[in-house]
Amino acid sequence: MGLFSFLTQEIAIDLGTANTLIIHNDKVVVDEPSIVAVDRMTGQVIAVGKRAMQMHGKTHENIKTIRPLRDGVIADFHAAEHMIRGMIKMIHPEKRLFTPSLKMVICIPSGITEVEKRAVRDSAEHAGGKEVYLIHEPMAAAIGIGIDVEEPIGNMIIDIGGGTSEIAVIALGGIVCDKSIRIAGDEFTSDIEEYMRRQHNILIGERSAERVKIEVGSAMIEIDNPPPDYAVHGRDLMTGVPKEIYVSYVEIAHALDKSVAKIEEAIMNALEMTPPELSADIFRTGIYLAGGGSMLRGLDKRISLKTKLPVHIAEDPLRAVARGTGIALKNIERFPFLMK
Ligand SMILES: Nc1ncnc2c1ncn2[C@@H]1O[C@H](COP(=O)(O)OP(=O)(O)OP(=O)(O)O)[C@@H](O)[C@H]1O
Ligand SMILES: [Mg+2]
Fold it and tell me: What's phi and psi for 311, nearest 5 deg?
């Protein structure tokens, strides 16, 4: 550690559609929903992360909440920059005499365009990043899972986040083929909102729909340990008054079926594109799942039945990408696939 090393701070950021994580000194120091609350009149940011999430769906006319990322990429540049800034501040809440210059690794979806990539880099630089490296999410996920990505062995990684599902085959430190679709956890949530409206004439908010997904969401009708029915609260579309309805996991499995089928289709596509030598490897190694969306009940089993391959869920799916990004940060010289 150099004499002036306190002047530079090294951080790894998983800038996700749903959650943003920051790793500093090998530890997850920030794990917050990707959302900011803004004063409509002054444009000032009032809250970032969990505090802003508590306001989501409950704001009055002077406050609005913004989720700066959509489908894995920055949709609101200004809000994204404030969010990154706010979250970096959370690392050291105590007041500092000066801001250290930041060396950071940020992950990006593999299907990202040049313009979208530029937006991530610019936000990071505006938020204080002096040296910014980018890494593709599936690569970060693979490293986070503990796969030796530089080996001449093919591995298939599927990262099902909030905004995107990314399917990639990795070998020799590179992404051999990949497929990214904009259907993931958020789509499951809106499927549930839509289903409740159509089927039960009840309007529920995004946060309630997400709760339903976590409590009774399922990718299959036949699962081990089915959860009990869950009480959902919302507004009756007919009478306008608050209402309670019990939903079962079977109903939700039906509501999610179309979106899950689209993910399956993308996986089949990616497998078809895979060069045969790597297919042979994947036959042995199987498929690795990461991202919060991979925690949907029965999803691993459904993918395994469809592909006839073994499917493994990462140990801590919500943090695999962040962990991998953190490892990349410590090995910048060793990983030539990091983009400067
Ligand atoms: N137990 C669970 N069952 C099903 N879905 C879950 C569960 N826990 C979290 N999720 C979903 O996982 C998603 C968030 O996952 P994650 O944090 O990996 O996404 P992200 O990295 O922010 O998004 P992206 O990578 O697409 O930009 C949300 O849609 C959330 O509802
Ligand atoms: Mg992610």
Answer: -125, 125
